[in-house]
């Protein structure tokens, strides 16, 4: 469920667009499936040498149609994923604003971990075109050296503990100072309730998109990656 400060007019408008896109998907997907079936049926018939000459021209036409239908479905999915990402970003920005105004969320650690797990599973899936390389912050692909994380982005932050030891924590970006080259981040563990001012070298920006195991296995984190 969205809280009152998460559902703004901008996010509601995007949610309406997203709903329309989702309602269009079944019809577009069905057309694509019909095209795939038509291609397969013609390919089966084309195994008969006597029919190849007759079917060859029709197979080319049907394959082109199937390709066009697949592109339409992909484009619709890309638009839907884009709207989901925009809604998430608006929600993050509003949450940061609420926190800065003193409206701090308090939750049990187990609830926080469940939310983090859900967030990791629902970040946008990157769907590149054939031969396209996954972009920075997709799966295991690191951010560019000059990348500046936005408010609401999740990061791993290296902070000093009470005994001068250093530990990695999961934090949320509040802001970045261009003049100082430093981030202000907030420890997401509400039991700590701490803000930290850290240089860029102490920040590792976490992925903003998931990579597809089938299409881009090279962008997946290896088991045991720390």
Describe this structure in words.
This protein is an alpha+beta fold. Helices cover 46% and strands 15% of the residues. The protein is built from three helices and five strands; from the N terminus they run H-H-H-E-E-E-E-E. A five-stranded antiparallel sheet has the order 4-3-2-1-5, with no helix packed on it. Helix 1 packs antiparallel against helix 2 (49-100). It is elongated and about 85 Å long.
Main pleated-sheet profile: 5 strands, antiparallel
Low-confidence stretches: 1-6
Query: Helical residue percent?
Result: 40-55%
Give the strand order, joined by hyphens, for the main sheet: 4-3-2-1-5
Shape: elongated
As an assembly, this protein is single chain
How many DSSP-defined strands?
A: 5
On the 0-100 scale, what is the average pLDDT?
A: 80
Kindly provide the radius of gyration, computed on alpha-carbon positions and rounded to a whole number of angstroms.
24 Å
Beta strand %? 5-15%
Through-space gap between termini: 32 Å
Secondary-structure-derived class:
alpha+beta
Number of helices: 3
- The SSE string, one letter per element, is HHHEEEEE
InterPro entries: SGF29, SGF29_tudor-like_dom, Tudor_SGF29_rpt1
Domain SGF29 C-terminal: 145-226
Protein name: SGF29 C-terminal domain-containing protein
Pfam family, one: SGF29_Tudor
Task: Map the helices and strands.
Blueprint lengths: L8 H37 L3 H52 L8 H14 L31 E7 L5 E12 L4 E6 L7 E5 L3 E3 L21
Helix pairs in contact: 1-2
Organism: Artemia franciscana (Brine shrimp)
InterPro entries: SGF29 (IPR037802), SGF29_tudor-like_dom (IPR010750), Tudor_SGF29_rpt1 (IPR047288)
Protein name: SGF29 C-terminal domain-containing protein
């Amino acid at each position: 469920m969205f809280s009152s400060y998460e559902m703004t007019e901008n996010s509601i408008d995007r949610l309406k667009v997203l709903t329309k896109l989702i309602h269009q998907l079944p019809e577009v997907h069905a057309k694509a499936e019909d095209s795939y079936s038509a291609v397969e049926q013609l390919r089966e018939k084309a195994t008969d040498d006597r029919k190849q000459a007759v079917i060859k021209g029709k197979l080319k036409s049907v394959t082109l149609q199937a390709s066009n239908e697949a592109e339409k479905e992909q484009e619709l999915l890309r638009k839907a994923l884009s709207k989901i990402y925009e809604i998430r970003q608006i929600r993050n920005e509003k949450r940061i604003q609420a926190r800065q105004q003193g409206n701090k969320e308090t939750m049990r650690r187990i609830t926080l971990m469940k939310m983090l797990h859900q967030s990791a599973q629902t970040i946008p899936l990157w769907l590149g075109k054939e031969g396209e390389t996954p972009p920075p912050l997709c799966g295991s692909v690191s951010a560019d050296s000059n990348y500046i994380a936005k408010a609401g982005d999740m990061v791993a932050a290296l902070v000093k503990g009470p005994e001068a030891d250093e530990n990695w924590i999961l934090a949320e970006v509040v802001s970045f100072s261009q003049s100082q080259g430093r981030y202000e981040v907030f420890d997401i563990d509400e039991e700590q309730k701490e803000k930290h001012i850290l240089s860029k070298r102490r920040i590792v920006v976490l992925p903003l998109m998931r990579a597809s195991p089938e299409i881009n296995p090279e962008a997946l984190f290896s088991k045991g990656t720390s």
